[in-house]
Design brief:
Chain lengths: 234, 234
Amino acid sequence: MEEPLKDDLIRVELSEFLPLRDVVFNALRKAILTGRLKPGERLMEVHLGEQMGVSRTPIREAIRKLELEGLVVMVPRRGAEVAGMTVKSMQDVLEVRRSLDVLSVELACDRMSETELERLREAGNKFTQAIKTGNAAVMAEADVVFHDIIVAGTGNLRLQQLLNNLAEQIYRYRFVYLQDDIRHELLVDEHEAVYHGIRNRNKIAAVEAVRIHIDNQEQSIIRHIEAEKFRTEE
Amino acid sequence: MEEPLKDDLIRVELSEFLPLRDVVFNALRKAILTGRLKPGERLMEVHLGEQMGVSRTPIREAIRKLELEGLVVMVPRRGAEVAGMTVKSMQDVLEVRRSLDVLSVELACDRMSETELERLREAGNKFTQAIKTGNAAVMAEADVVFHDIIVAGTGNLRLQQLLNNLAEQIYRYRFVYLQDDIRHELLVDEHEAVYHGIRNRNKIAAVEAVRIHIDNQEQSIIRHIEAEKFRTEE
DNA sequence: AAACAGTTAATTACACACAATTAACTATAT
DNA sequence: ATATAGTTAATTGTGTGTAATTAACTGTTT
């Protein structure tokens, strides 16, 4: 008898050739970051297992990893639920991320090769084009590529790992702030400033540009969260 | 028939009232950080299960968390092994940690209350006394307390979580650098400088003191790793 | 009517079993 | 003698079963 896959809230990407636990891990993480699984929602093993067509074991192991990433919280003997999103926790994340982003552009100024700088320039151009499309998904993707090149340019694997994780936490809010039209033009300018700072290996300028970039993101996200709060408060 | 518990390399602390997976997680983490489990050593599920008297399930879940923490690496279809310790990876960790320690001291300057500052002063005094004992374990503990007070003073939970994790990575090297006798007097001075910087809410001075502190640690650890390399190279 | 106790349903925590894959060892052929 | 193929042992990956604990609901008593 065919399982009719009741709802495809959580789609299993079978294209990947990974252990099931990692497939589940990626699927659940994505569902949380994009908001398909909402804060406070319980993650029940049998239910998720039926939905994704796997047994409870890979589900449990995936939840262990989400637990350490801070995306779910464990209630003893009740299981996992999606961690909440508050202004405070977002500010905490951004406070750390700002510091590590500053570190990464400093290191990038010192260490990026000419070919890496060239790739960064191209990524900057692509981001400018992406902004013109007005499509939030395209913009988000181009933004990620731009920042990934910088972080990779530091040559510090641990920094890459941590910043990827922190950036992901922010993605939970990003789908929101990228719709802030008035920010689009500014975003292009900010990226330009970061690029030129690194290009000229001018740490002071590059750091300042990154600081402004993150600060603006923070303000934009806070504005949207507050607005969201008004909408959902009864 | 009684299992005679072949070797107690990994002792299960049954005092704690935690899920078995967390007991296992803590036990394995401690074993890795203190060097009882050596880099490259394989973590085999049945073997560990027999040793600790639990089934494979809690072992597996603990390994998932160690995996995300970076203490073990997964080899597909071969299982987990203890992650290596190289000068490069240690420098990567310290590069990040330096940046976050600077951040935490800056935030502490702004946010620590008078009572917290008082507790920091006491912790500083205790550290000075600990140094006089010459006992590495006592010193390490006092050092942790001192730094924990500063990090707690930032009020940033995410920062606390990350710095705890990074500090733990360094503990793998710490058992080594704390035996560096000539550093002991300097350590006291360095802590004093950090304390006074925060006490006077003087960010510039506090940050400079922390930078020096971390840089010295890094040099000390590198010296010892290089020395270790000579010893074990045949 | 409200509160408390008892019972039931649901869910995790843990253990165990089986299948699949890898690695090592042996035997045979060139 | 060496290389290759076949076989076996060992270990992970995944699925399932069982006990224990929690939460909710119902019935009874004050």
